[in-house]
Design a protein that fits this description.
This protein is of the alpha/beta class. The protein has 15 helices and 21 strands. It folds into three domains: 278 residues, FAD/NAD(P)-binding domain; 106 residues, Flavocytochrome C3, Chain A, domain 1, CATH 3.90.700.10; 91 residues, Fumarate reductase/succinate dehydrogenase flavoprotein-like, C-terminal domain (Methane Monooxygenase Hydroxylase, Chain G, domain 1, Up-down Bundle). The strands form six sheets. The chain has a five-stranded parallel beta sheet, with helices on one face. It binds flavin-adenine dinucleotide.
Length: 499
């Protein structure tokens, strides 16, 4: 088996992974492993922007308060304070790397508004902020001689020696398995959206990092808090396409199929109530009226504003025949963000020595039971920076490690069936509305699917199959977390607890 040694190993090339790589490269050699192309990530798909209290009437204390309210009492106040206090520097860092953000008339940052924020504080690049951020950080990584990136390298295992994480094994097409040893390993593998049959996440979001970390004994928490974005397109050609909250921030309203603005029936904050409230209200309205979707109505907004502020949405929707200055947009909620994950301290350290986590894969305490919109790109930068500061203290000697066994996988045709059944099951039983019986049924079915996978797996590697097993592990954590919650809080809602 090929072997390579580095100082710091990063798994994932989204914002969390690349921000860590850039900062850690000041202290040693960095290798980044990523299972698809560099820019294939949730980060590239982020639309709305990054929250930071940089406006004249704003203050980090207000950002802190909004974050704590959204988190429904389950945030770690220290983590939240660190996040919001470091937000302006995070924006400055991105701007210095060359990320372009929209400016107002007198060249100050043009700040958008999203649900749950008491001030305009969303720094953005039209409706494709993530694309712009990923462009800037990946260009900086390419120009950095201390960072090497291996694309299409699927990480299958973390390497352990004497209770320490000392690297990872990756599989590269036409090369095979490669062992990467390192002083410290950063898991930055993003979200778990593909656990559900409807998600805004790209295909790489299969919860690999949570499964990898759990296997070596890392603590995992809060997986039951899965955020559903209220407004994703309901259309056969572009299912799951996100219609950013910023459109509601700009004044678009939600209507049922009778044209009634139904949010008046659910919450006084109307369309700008926190995401879980809006998503649940939409789901209830759809149930009540037995409809497939509700509608987002931006038609009263000026056509020029819609084209200027939402160019991606304007273009993609017009390609399927929807003109957003004239047509209501059919929308449904879809899984969007995982608030739980690998538990870390304020420096991104997990309970496994040598193992760090950052970004959506992590559970830093910032989001509690619900994430405030546009806090996740920010979290990825702030916690990766802290981790890059402390990794210098990791031992410089990397011990010898045994070669891991070759992975075994379920044949792909069977994995396809297993994955689809899992996604349907999770959407039905562990989505926005849950019941104890439904969760129990899901738990039993997932346990037997895992047994089926492991007993039928054969020699030979398939990334799709390996991801499917990781999805099963994530599903199990979500369902078991939901069963263990004895009260409805934030994103977790079990109808039986309401009785
Ligand atoms: C449509 C959409 C809109 C969003 N809008 C916003 C927004 O406006 N503001 C905001 O703050 N957040 C937003 N988010 C959330 C935000 O984009 C993500 O939480 C954030 O980008 C996560 O960054 P990350 O670096 O942790 O993970 P990602 O950007 O997802 O990167 C994960 C990386 O890990 C790699 N990887 C995964 N598994 C493996 C493996 N086994 N081996 C090797 N590599 C692996 C992936 O290929 C990828 O490169 C949005 C998300 C979506 C999907």
């Amino acid at each position: 088996m090929k072997k390579e040694q580095t100082d710091f190993l990063v798994i994932g090339s989204g914002l969390a992974g690349l921000a860590f790589a850039l900062e850690a490269s000041k202290h040693g050699k960095v290798v980044v492993l990523t299972k698809a192309g560099v820019q294939d990530s949730n980060t590239s798909w982020a639309q709305g922007g990054i929250a930071a209290a940089v406006g004249e009437s704003d203050d980090w204390r207000l950002h802190e308060e909004d974050t704590l309210i959204a988190g429904a009492g389950l945030c770690d106040p220290d983590a939240v304070r660190m996040l919001v206090q470091n937000a302006p520097q995070a924006i400055e860092w991105l701007a210095k790397l060359g990320a372009r953000f929209d400016l107002g008339a007198s060249n100050e940052l043009d700040l958008g508004r999203e649900g749950g924020h008491s001030r305009n504080r969303i720094v953005h690049h039209a409706d494709k902020t993530g694309w712009e951020v990923e462009r800037a950080v990946s260009a900086a990584v390419r120009a950095n001689p201390n960072i090497v990136v291996y694309q299409f390298c699927f990480v299958t295992d973390l390497l352990m020696s004497g209770g320490r994480c000392v690297g990872a094994t990756g599989t590269i097409p036409d090369v095979g398995q490669v062992m990467f040893t390192a002083r410290a390993t950063m898991v930055a593998t993003g979200g778990v959206g593909k656990v559900y049959d409807s998600t805004t996440n790209p295909r790489v979001a299969t919860g690999d990092g949570v499964a990898l970390a759990q296997k070596v004994g890392a603590n995992i928490a809060n997986m039951e808090f899965q955020q559903f974005h209220p407004t994703t397109l309901h259309h056969p050609q572009l299912s799951g396409f996100l219609i950013t909250e910023a459109m509601r921030g700009a004044g678009a309203t939600l209507r049922n199929h009778n044209g009634r603005r139904f949010m008046f029936d659910y919450d006084s904050r109307l369309e700008l109530a926190p995401r879980d409230v809006v998503a649940r209200s939409i789901a209830r309205e759809m149930q009540k009226l037995e409809t497939w979707c509700v509608y987002l109505d931006p038609t009263h907004l000026p056509s020029e504003l819609l084209q200027e502020e939402f160019p991606t949405i304007w273009k993609r929707l017009s390609e399927i025949g929807l003109l957003i200055d004239r047509d209501w947009i059919p929308v449904v909620p879809a899984q969007h963000y995982s608030c739980g994950g690998v538990v870390t301290d304020l420096n991104g350290r997990t309970n496994v020595p040598g193992l760090y986590a950052s970004g959506e894969v992590s559970c830093t305490g910032v989001h509690g039971a619900n994430r405030l919109a546009s806090n996740s790109l920010l979290e990825a930068i702030v916690f990766s920076f802290k981790a890059a500061e402390v990794v210098q203290a990791e031992p410089t000697e990397v011990p010898e490690v045994q070669e891991p066994k070759s992975p075994t996988c379920l044949p792909e045709n069977e994995a396809i069936l297993l994955r689809h059944a899992l996604q349907k099951l999770m959407s039905a039983q562990a989505g926005i509305f849950r019941t104890t019986a439904g969760l129990q049924e899901a738990s039993d079915k997932i346990a037997s699917a895992l047994t089926q996978y492991d007993t039928q797996a054969t020699a030979g590697f398939s990334a799709y199959s390996a991801e499917t097993r990781n999805l099963l592990i994530n599903a199990q954590l979500i369902v078991n977390g939901a069963l263990a919650r004895t009260e409805n809080v934030g994103l977790h809602y079990n109808a039986d607890l309401d009785k």
